[in-house]
Every structure is written in C-alpha cells, then in structure tokens.
Design goal:
This protein is α+β, with helices and mostly antiparallel strands. The chain has a three-stranded antiparallel beta sheet, with no helix packed on it. Strands 2-3 form a two-stranded antiparallel ribbon. The chain has a two-stranded antiparallel ribbon with strand order 6-7. A hairpin with a 2-residue loop joins strand 6 and strand 7. The radius of gyration is 26 Å and the shape is elongated.
Length: 178
C-alpha cells in the first residue's frame, strides 16, 4: 500500500480554518474543492511516486474503510468458545502473556504454551491448575510466580485459564518465527 510505503500526510483541517481548496495547475488552474479529508504525498523526494505519475496534487479522500483485527489474532479463541474460556483469555492477557506465548504471540520469556503441542494436551488438568496457582508445589526451583493473590477468586480464574488453554489447543497456528 502506497500510504504505508511513502511519506504521506492525512489532513482533516487547515490550521486557520480556511476551506479545503486549491488551484489545479495541470488543468487551467481550475479550483478543486477538497474535503472533508485529503491525503498529501511528499512525492518530491520519491522517484518511484514521480515516475508513477504522482503530481503535486493532494488526493481527496472520499471513503475510509477500517478493518478491525484483534490485537493478538493468533491468541484469539475459536468461534463458539465458552464464556469461561473467554474470561480465561482475559486472565491470560493480564497475567500470563508478558512471559508466555500462544501460537507465537506474547512475551517469549517463558515457554510457548500452544504450538506445536498445547500444555492442555500433555499436562493433566489437575496438575495444570496446581501449576498455575502454585508452581513451586510442582517445581521447587521454578522462577514462575503463581497466579496473583490479588485475584479474589483464584480457583475460578485458574479454571478459566485452563478452559482457555483447552480451547486454544484446537486453534493452533504456526508462529511467524517458530
């Protein structure tokens, strides 16, 4: 996309409040009303844009289409996941992803939890819950902290995290940099 590849400016107002208009030097100085928005290329420094025919005219913006993607598309749950798994995703984002990754997204300080094999596939649920709540009860020298005691209902939050991990075991995606 040219907008992202070259210096461009998206204008929505003149500082002095004057209308969006200019004289088109290429067409007998015809007055061109721009707006409500326009795009201005800094094409004087780009041989590629000049060779493609970009002139000194700004481009009027008639429509903007926004496509929203989740902030962590490889971590998002598969459609139809339970409410518990959805809450587990929120817990994961708040308490786990600074260190762990799911499908390559997250902190990367601690192990990947879903790809190629999910921890929910090779650790029994009762041990996974115990590990999340109190890792030192399973590995005495681990550096992983247990789920914060600031959570009022840690037991439920842990079950929801496990529900998220189980749901994600059905949504494996190859990390961008495995």
């Amino acid at each position: 996309m040219k907008l992202l590849a070259h210096d461009a400016y998206f204008a929505f107002a003149h500082e002095d409040g004057t209308p969006f208009m200019l004289a088109n030097r290429l067409q007998n100085n015809e007055i061109v009303w721009l707006g409500p928005l326009y795009l201005v290329w800094d094409n004087t420094k780009s041989k590629e844009l000049l060779d493609a025919g970009a002139s000194d005219m700004p481009y009027q913006i008639k429509r903007i289409e926004l496509k929203f993607m989740p902030p962590f598309p490889n971590m998002t749950l598969p459609p139809g996941s339970s409410a518990a798994a959805q809450r587990g995703f929120m817990h994961f984002r708040q308490h786990c992803m600074a260190c762990h990754t799911i499908n390559g997204e997250g902190g990367g300080k601690a192990p990947e939890l879903n790809y190629p094999v999910s921890v929910a596939e090779y650790i029994k649920p009762e041990y996974l819950k115990r590990w999340i709540m109190s890792p030192r009860s399973i590995r005495y020298n681990t550096t992983m902290p247990g789920l914060t005691s600031a959570i009022l209902d840690r037991e439920t939050a842990t079950e929801e995290l496990v529900a998220y991990l189980k749901a994600m075991s059905n949504a494996k995606r190859v990390p961008a940099n495995p």
